[in-house]
Amino acid sequence: MAETKNMILNMGPQHPSTHGVLRLILELDGETVVKLTPEIGYLHRGVEKLGENLTYHQFIPLTDREDYIASLSNNLAYCMTVEKLLGMEVPPRAMVARVLLTELQRIASHLIWLGTFGLDIGAMSLFFYCMRERETILDMFEACAGARLTINYFRIGGIAKDLPEGFEKRVRDFIDILPEKMKNDYERIFQDNKIVRIRTEGVGIISKEDAVDLGLSGPLLRACGVPWDIRKSNPYCGYETYEFDIPTGKTGDVFDRYLVRMEEMRQSLKIVQQALDRLPGGAFLADDPKICLPPKQKVMTEMESLIHHFKIVSEGFDPPVGEVYHSIETPRGELGFYIVSDGSNKPYRLRFRPPSFVNLESLAKMAEGKLIGDLIAIIGALDPVMGEVDR
Amino acid sequence: MSEMVVEKLKKRFSASVLDSYSFRDENTVVIKKEDLVAICRYLKSDPELSFDFLSDLCGVDYMGREPRFEVVYHLFSINKHHRIRLKAMVGEGEKISSVVGLWSTADWHEREAFDMYGIIFEGHPNLTRILMPENWDGHPLRKDYPLKGR
Amino acid sequence: MTEFVTIMIVKMVVIFAAVMGTMTYITLAERKILGYMQIRPGPNRVGPWGLLQPIADGIKLFLKEDIIPDKASKAVFVIAPAMALIPAVMTIAVVPFGPTVTILGRPVDIYMADLNIGILYIFAVSSIGVYGIVLAGWASESKYSLLGGLRASAQMISYELSMGFAIVGVIMMSQSLSMVKIIEAQQGVWFIVPQLFGFIIYITAAMAELNRTPFDLPEGESELVAGYFTEYSSMKYAMFMLAEYINIITVSGIVTTLYLGGWSGPVLPPLLWFVIKLLAVVFFMIWVRATVPRLRYDQLMTLGWKVLLPASIVNILLTPIIMKIFGYL
User: What domain range is C112 assigned to?
Assistant: First the structure.
């Protein structure tokens, strides 16, 4: 009998379903994945190093480029970390607007996840339906900030400018449409499909203990049945005052991850609704001239403001010496920033704890011993964004 | 909440806790690197603490100070919802024990710290570069590594 | 004799041209229909409603550089696309597009040949097509191609069986293997009614034979990049595409003939009826593509061997009873 050898298949970094530049070295026995080694770093831009050489304000746009699917969440995590370092209060309007926008961002992110996940397992149409709804959200972001993907809307101490006119109506219209679309367009074409079920149920199972051990967070961890959501456990931005549930799964398979994300979108809508109802008036940026940029009008007319503006733009501000870690719940899990300040205008150390990076680590555990088709579904359900994996 | 953790740690490992301080409601404990694994095991297994989740592990370079590097561990307890920050100091070329045995998630984090700072984690199953190419020279996040023009 | 040859040559040219024309516009129709199902307009830049798109595609494919990978087995790599295309074209010969009509005082059949073993011929010839795919996968010396080729061969062999068994019911009812006889046997009631079960099995297996979604594993984009034709470019790539779409027409033609009464129908001319039915089947396939995701490899095999094959055998056993009920016996 001839000797058989396992085949080494190099999947990626250019491959239709590795979600960017993820490279997997697969050892295959027929179609079964025997060993899986992820190779990352193709998108490494040295963001942490850059952060040590930029002032605190200058770093905000770079956070957009980490998890580019949910850039507002990154803005929020970073701004909140710096605010914590400064010991700074944010005006209530900004706080509610932040919740409102990041929850919309969560929906947009989950929509794009759902669409690409559908593409991964071969359901083409779903992608376009998801994009249609995501488009509405992106239009709202565009109205707010002028940008659609790298939004860069939050500032240290609040938000860059006030919410635009007619924003509330747009959001309310969207709240009215989405549940119906989810029910008619997504669930009927996807969830109720027999093939989707057999492709996702019982695939990529990971136990509760393993999930915690591997540091999974976000919807992936909740799909395993661990009801941990930073918005509930360590509330920030006043999340403790909103009413919402944390959906959890039972088995921790790909289908549970789908269900958890779908339910999360509904819960996010609930939060958006509540945030809209309570959106207070008033300032949208903290009144701290040493840290927050003054409005353009004042810069043009007041000497003081002009000086502050110049100082902030040219050299930033000096926070106290110390170190803080702050993490928030992004669509992908726990996103943390760890900033060490030496009292100068630039962070001494800026560490970015990306949820995708940690989640991706468990891929081998989930996919080894499965078929290639399963592997694709598992990568899809992991929802890695290579921008934040590689930084 | 996490003051309790610090108190318990100080009581149990009085010799290994070098320093502890609190800033913005966050508690930091500086420990001797030799006792790292013992402390971590205690933090993880003690039912009152139950730090079952390693949020983050990273290195920091304090160039010009001895020992030069710090490894920072951010622990979280999913049941108790409290956090603690552990720090262990490592000199250049020195080794620190790996915590992969306690939290598997440390695997890639430790590889990254090795990649970026050259900190060597003893007992790590596969300590190779992770973000930079395998044949890369130097460790980019060190303070003496130039930002550009290399 | 000269007259016969002339008629045959003219018919050959006309039918071939018609099929090629239909085929190119089926590619456009597929993209358009998928587009409308997916809330986007589909191709609409080349010509009005994108009508010139297939021509633009063709020109583009002609003009592309023809790349042969260095490590490929060159001869096989070159032959493989032709081996996929030729059987596809050959099967058209027995598809009965219409009955005998009188043109210029001469009786002309609107099909190439009425073989008394028509169905067997189709099966025999179309199975050769799989060689093209397997050899393409093997000769490319690429791992994705190899996996695609392996998947294709396993899939086609598995589904050919149930496909063959499924039509036994039709043959029993029509008492003939000739395509024309089968159509004539359906003058009363189309076989889709008594043979509904067989029809479902046949169309499922046929879609697997065609590598259409949900059975498009050999070329499953998100898994194997492009499967067996990953390394192909230019006209060789186009030949695989041609073969695929010609096969769609043939299979739709066979479904029309076996189950939908072929050219028979009221009022409209028979040829038109045939085309309408054929396009309806093509539309169905496009519709399915827009709706369902892809099966996994092992699930595909399970479906073929554990569901469709037994079901098709049961169908054979049931057919005599059905024939009794419908008064064929």
Answer: 2-325
CB–CB of B105 and A213 under 8 A? Answer: yes
Chains that touch A (3 or more CB pairs under 8 A): B, C
Per cent of chain A over pLDDT 70 is 99
Q: Is A334 on the interface with B (CB under 8 A)?
A: yes
B114 neighbors B121 (Cβ within 8 angstroms): yes
Option in A7, A195, A372 nearest C292 (CB): A195
Number of domains in chain C: 1
In B, which residues are within 8 Å of A53 by CB distance? 147
- Cα angle vertex A67, ends A209, B107, to 5°? 40
Q: What is the pLDDT of residue C250?
A: 87
Q: Do A124 and C38 touch (CB under 8 A)?
A: yes
Q: Cα–Cα–Cα angle for A232, A233, A235, nearest 5°?
A: 60
Contacts of A120 (CB under 8 A, 6+ apart): A17, A376, A377, A379, A380, C222
Listed residue (B100, C296, B45) closest to A361, CA to CA: B100
Nearest to B63 by CA among C229, A41, C154, A349: A349
Give me the interface pTM, i.e. the ipTM. Answer: 0.88
Q: Which of B2, B138, B119, B127 is nearest to B62 (CA)?
A: B119
pLDDT tier at A1 (50, 70, 90 boundaries)? low
* C242, HSE (Cβ side, Cα atoms, 13 Å): 25
**Which residues in C have their CB inside 8 Å of a CB on A?**
34, 37-40, 143-144, 147, 151, 213-214, 216-217, 220-225, 289-299
Residue B148 pLDDT: 77
